[in-house]
Amino acid sequence: MDPALYRVVANRRETSDVSSLTLAPLKAEMAVAPPRHGQFNMLTAFGVGEAAISVSRSSRLSGRDSGQGLHTAGAGSIVHTIRDVGAVTHALCVASAGSLVGVRGPFGQGWGAEDGDWLAEGDVVVVAGGIGLAPLRSVVDDLAGRSTDASGRLRGRLFVIAGAREQAQVIFADDLARWAALGAIVSVTVDVSTPGWTGHVGLVTAQIAPAGIDPGGARALVCGPEIMMRFTAAALEKLGMDPSRIFVSLERNMQCGLGWCGHCQLGPLILCRDGPIVAYGGAVTHLMRERER
What topology is assigned to 113-249 in CATH? Predict the structure, then answer.
């Protein structure tokens, strides 16, 4: 329960209300354990409070610097991408370089991408809504880094479908372009078109059927608002994907990260311990219709 002290190395503004903090441990021996893709940390804004925030990149999960200062930050550095929605997240979003934050973790179950060569097994479909791309970012980086041929192109089909309210709310535009350059099939859609936007307009679910996904052996990773995840998972299942190979990231009121307090309970699941990544299908299909209380 004691947070490790981390220093803010950089604060990068992604959108008007989203920031990415690059954090480095104050002392190497104080660093939290290396995270797995999809895990989260509890971040403390001292004097304000603590919040559960997904890891969007770390020195362990990615060898790419991509403007986040990971190489200069050193071993044990991590990036958290945060939306300014409350007192704690606001304090974190405005934290200046050199300031200190507390870090506990990593917690929860990840996507599991470290355990095999997914692109050799079939199509991998990543679907994100808004800031939901943050906990998926390191997975795509990993797949793009490990599953390439001699020419540096992907050895399988990786689909990245990302949605946002409008163009100004699209995060990680540089990463999306880089993944496309490596051979990923990237589709970005917005709810509302603005001057200069020439891409898709509409829901991410509308991009699934025309994408050309082969459902046999495919695996899907979905993160975003719950209603978006529910309809996306249903669309993928309708396409013919095995529900047990569709994974969603569920969040509730995570306060301890250790499964002690019970605030994040969803039916039989304690999400900080059994999630946030869970397989769609079965009881989860029905649990996703339950409002947070």
Answer: Rossmann fold (3.40.50)
